[in-house]
Design goal:
The complex is a heterodimer of chains A (about 425) and B (about 375).
Chain A lengths: L1 H21 L6 E3 L2 E3 L3 E4 L5 E7 L6 H18 L1 E2 L2 E9 L4 H12 L4 E6 L3 H13 L3 E4 L19 E3 L4 H15 L4 E6 L3 H17 L2 E7 L8 H9 L4 E3 L4 H11 L9 E4 L6 H7 L7 E5 L7 H13 L8 H18 L1 E2 L5 E4 H9 L4 E2 L4 E2 L12 E5 L16 E4 L2
Helix pairs in contact in A: 2-11, 3-4, 5-6, 8-9, 11-12
Chain B lengths: L1 H8 L2 H24 L19 H32 L6 H22 L1 H4 L1 H28 L7 H23 L3 E3 L9 E4 L2 E4 H23 L1 H11 L1 H6 L4 H27 L1 E3 L4 H14 L4 H23 L19 H15 L7 H7 L1
The chains are: A alpha/beta (about 425), B mainly alpha (about 375).
Chain lengths: ~425, ~375
């Protein structure tokens, strides 16, 4: 008996001793010329600096992630080198749900070469993944998370390494409500969300402002992201007799709602409106002819900086198509913001190796001020909101995904004029 | 003696179970009653018996439920037939459904591009259905041959694990072939809009789905009850060993069972795509789970039970959230009923399953067969 117990006890002791090695955390360290309370990344001379993305690049919402990844790729092509090193981009699929966010963040956190991350796309992923990355000392800048909670002043320390270049939905929800109330003169509206933090908060914000303006919210419904039969919930919505339905959800379920709304008695003439999560040619595929005439709230491409036109030309040359979703320019800005912060804090030793302090990088990112990006002039507030948010409303004019050309043609910008 | 008998009957577990049954029933009754007390200021007073929704709203909900339920029913047939014969749950069945719908999408899209789809719509639909049924049938047979037959003499759990493996294999094989995104079926112009039937409008796609599945199910039932192969299937399902002693080729019967189940799943896939349009590699998962639930609800192993279970489940999902949750007014917490009840659609569906199983553990029509099989 004793002979069995001893090896087991030894193994347990060994595991306990070895455990800190397996836990992804960066201890305070002095490496080369840099001392940092969280940790230091050393990049040897001639080696690339590793930047990681965590985007949704598979499944029905892949257009969102591929669009942002392209923004990062173009930023890397433009920048070429950071602090004398080439840039290596690695990435994980984050699936547009909390589980995917956890998986992607855990994988990236285990990779000590990662200097900074860009992501996530969906707010649910961020809520699960950001604390994991920050425990490993990795700052992450999101190009498309919009849920207000993520940069809320009440958030915990786990969020110290999180910033975003996307607008906060406090802005988008308000803009959508103003458009609906004043431009469309709608007084009765209903909302539908899918239980994700993005959709729930945006629908809530829309309803809040719409009520404040004097409108009536006939019902606030919810579906689950895997639902396909929306007719029962739409029938319930129809009973309240709304003039408009605002459903800021994602592509698959948004497509089902758009198609099926036209088939439910009492909703044939109801105006449909969604948000930036469905602003993609893939959505036209999902929704078909029923999408024509509906509205989307989304970033205002017309208000972007002058460099955006050159970006679009590069995009067209490189990928042979128009951007697939609204956040490519935000991703470009997230990447350039990170590059600028790295150059600010990187130190070299005599052999030409580069050292980057993780806390120093985080502080440099938060100190971003009057940064000239494609989406406007970015200044980060103490909670990581860096965007220069301008929201427009677009109307779909053709259901053909090949005719996707947001702004002038399809979807056509209708507000603000 | 008598006294001990009575005491034994009231065991702690028995009491708990009865308490649970009564509790669930009370919640359902309270909720349904509350729904028909619309406009009543308090949950504790009695008002006029009327709901927020007009009668035709309820009728619409039932029709939506029927059309969703008939797809579940077609799928549930596959689960129940395989269970009846092999006592095994074929968890890959939902993915056979996906395989049929996804493959046939490419034919439907080609028809759509060439215009054939709207020139001769019924012929196009028949061709798409046939391709889906044949693909799904071949895949079902392949799975049976590769993943189930070698494991027939092993404990049942082994085959179950193999089925889950087959399910993942199919999902990710299709993801590899066709990508992780989704595709959208083209629209048949003749199925746009509504038909008026007995004074109520019914969506054409849903009418087609209901009629097609009823026809398919009737044909299948006739096949099992009237033909020689069907009789052999029933014999094998009653007692595999005796049936083989009587000269029935058990392997052949099992192959036929998988073929029929697979074809029904493929057809169900196209019908589903007619209504919902989107197809993707993971689309079989949730309908598969729901159809399995429907099969258990109806009494697994029983063919009419599977049909009934599917229809019940579809209607519960569609009507349940409004009927039960909206009226579930809890004073102080939810004075106006549970908010956004359709988020809890699946909760209703699975609560119904629990309800049926605690009152009739063998399912709605399961008792007759369960006695013999035990």
């Amino acid at each position: 008996m004793k002979r069995v117990k001893l090896p087991i006890a030894l193994m347990v002791a060994l595991l306990l001793v070895a455990a800190p090695y397996f836990v992804a955390r960066a201890p305070a360290a002095t490496v080369g010329p840099v001392t940092d309370p969280i940790g230091v990344v050393r990049v040897n001379r001639g080696q690339p600096i590793t930047i990681a993305y965590w985007f949704v690049i598979a499944g029905p919402d892949a257009s969102l992630g591929i669009d942002t990844r392209r923004g990062v790729e173009i930023a890397i092509e433009d920048k070429k080198t950071v602090a004398g090193h080439s840039i290596r981009l690695i990435g994980e699929d984050s699936g547009c749900n909390a589980e995917g966010g956890t998986t992607a963040a855990t994988k990236l956190a285990a990779n000590r070469a990662v200097v900074a991350a860009i992501g996530s796309n969906c707010s649910s992923e961020a809520r699960a993944g950001v604390p994991i990355l920050w425990k490993a000392g990795i700052s992450t800048v999101s190009p498309s998370n919009t849920a207000p909670d993520l940069t809320d002043p009440q958030r915990t320390k786990d969020w110290d390494g999180y910033l975003r270049t996307a607008h906060n939905d406090l802005v988008q929800g308000r803009a959508a409500a103003l458009f609906v109330y004043y431009a469309l003169s709608v007084r009765r509206a209903a909302t539908i969300h899918d239980g994700s933090i993005y959709a729930e908060r945006l629908a809530q914000r829309f309803a809040e402002i719409f009520k404040k303006l004097g409108g009536t919210i006939t019902s606030q419904e919810a579906v689950s992201p895997t639902d396909t039969d929306m007719r029962p919930v739409l029938t319930k919505v129809a009973a309240g007799n709304p003039q408009l339905i605002y459903y800021p959800i994602f592509i698959a379920s948004g497509g089902f709602i758009t198609r099926q709304a036209k088939e439910v008695a009492g909703l044939q003439r109801t105006i449909l409106m969604s948000a930036d999560g469905t602003f993609s040619p893939d959505f036209l595929k999902a929704a078909g002819e029923a999408a024509v005439g509906m509205y989307h709230s989304s970033p205002d491409f017309g208000a972007f900086a002058a460099g955006y036109q050159a970006f679009l030309q590069k995009h067209q040359r490189k990928y042979g198509e128009k951007p697939l979703a609204p956040f490519h320019a935000h991703a470009y800005d997230a990447a350039t913001m990170i590059f600028a912060a790295i150059e600010k804090v990187a130190k070299k030793d005599s052999a030409g190796n580069t050292y980057i302090g993780r806390k120093a990088l985080r502080d440099a990112l938060y100190a971003t001020k009057d940064f000239k990006g494609l989406t406007g002039t970015l200044t980060c507030n103490p909670y990581g909101d860096c965007a220069d948010p301008k929201i427009a409303v677009y109307q779909v004019t053709s259901a053909d995904p090949a005719k996707w050309n947001p702004g002038a043609e399809n979807p056509k910008k209708v507000w603000p004029r | 003696m008598m006294q001990r008998g009575v005491l034994q009957r009231f065991s702690v577990i028995g009491l708990y179970l009865w308490g649970f049954r009564v509790g669930v029933l009370l919640i359902v009754l309270w909720g349904s009653f509350g729904t028909f007390q619309a406009g009543c200021p308090s949950a504790l007073t009695l008002c006029d018996f009327k709901s927020r929704y007009a009668a035709d709203v309820w009728l619409d909900l039932v029709i939506y439920g029927l059309s969703q339920g008939s797809v579940y029913a077609l799928l549930a047939l596959g689960y129940t037939m395989v269970y009846g014969i092999l006592r095994m749950i074929n968890f890959a069945h939902g993915d056979v459904f996906m395989a049929g719908a996804y493959t046939a999408y490419y034919l439907a899209a080609a028809f759509g591009r060439s215009g054939f789809l709207n020139r001769s719509p019924l012929l196009a639909l028949a061709a798409v259905l046939a391709l889906a049924a044949i693909t799904a049938m071949s895949i079902a047979l392949l799975i049976e041959r590769v993943a189930y037959r070698p494991l027939r003499r092993t404990p049942r759990l082994v085959a179950l694990i193999s089925a889950i493996g087959a399910s993942f294999f199919l999902e990710y094989a299709f993801r590899g072939f066709f990508g992780s995104g989704f595709q959208a079926y083209p629209e048949w112009n003749i199925f746009k809009g509504e038909w008026t039937f007995l004074g109520t409008g019914i969506l054409r796609t849903q009418a087609v789905v209901i009629v097609a599945s009823v026809l398919l199910m009737a044909g299948l039932y006739a096949y099992v009850m009237r033909t020689k192969t069907g009789t052999a299937m029933r014999a094998v399902s009653e007692d595999l060993e005796i049936a083989s002693l009587m000269g029935i080729d058990v392997d052949r019967v099992i192959v036929v069972t998988f073929a029929i189940g697979g074809a029904a799943a493929g057809a169900a896939g196209v019908l589903y795509a007619l209504v919902f349009k989107q197809v993707h590699f993971f689309m079989g998962f949730f309908p598969g789970i729901k159809a399995f639930t429907a099969a258990v609800l109806g009494g697994i192993g029983n063919i009419p039970g599977a049909m009934l279970g599917g229809l019940f489940l579809g209607i519960f999902e569609s009507v349940g959230p409004i009927l039960i949750l909206e009226g579930l007014r809890v004073p102080g917490i939810y004075p106006a009923g549970i908010p956004a009840p359709y988020q809890l659609k699946d909760v209703i569906a699975f609560t119904m399953l629990v309800m049926v199983l605690i009152f009739r553990p063998s399912g709605i029509l399961g008792e007759r067969l369960a006695g013999k099989k035990a």
